[in-house]
Task: structure prediction
Amino acid sequence: MKNQSALLLTLVMAFLRPVFAVEKIDSGSHIYKEVCSTCHDSGVGSAPKLGDQHAWKKLISEGQVIITAHGYVGVRAMPPRGGKEELTVEQFAEALNYMVNKSGGRWSSPDKSMREAINNEITNRKKKQ
Ligand code: HEC
Result:
């Protein structure tokens, strides 16, 4: 019986692995559509719109660490994590990259040292709230 459940688990994992792999590559656009598009497609509450290079220019120039961290924590009319509490920093960063790269920027997934910098900025920012 024990062996059978182990086998079943192995099979389930083997089946799920490619699903997760695809999900990871596509997660930026996917999360954007699921969460961010509600406001950033049409510019609800003066949200900078997807593809609006003018609106994104200044934000992009502030840098990926700052903008990712501030959006994650929430800033003015932008709710923390776009209102989806369970988003991880990585997921939020992917969705933001997707939006920035459609709006005149050229960002890539944060590497380890950038993730640390983002996490530090998140901690600092939360202390000030
Ligand atoms: C409920 C509406 C709403 C949703 C959903 C939303 N945003 Fe926003 N966002 C806003 C608004 C409004 C602003 C403009 C805030 C301001 O300047 O007052 C904004 C601003 C931002 C900014 C700029 C922050 C800054 O430092 O000025 C970033 C980055 C951002 N959003 C990322 C995202 C991402 C990524 C998602 C999805 C995970 C998302 N938003 C989902 C409403 C939303």
Q: What stands out?
A: The two ends are 53 Å apart (CA to CA).
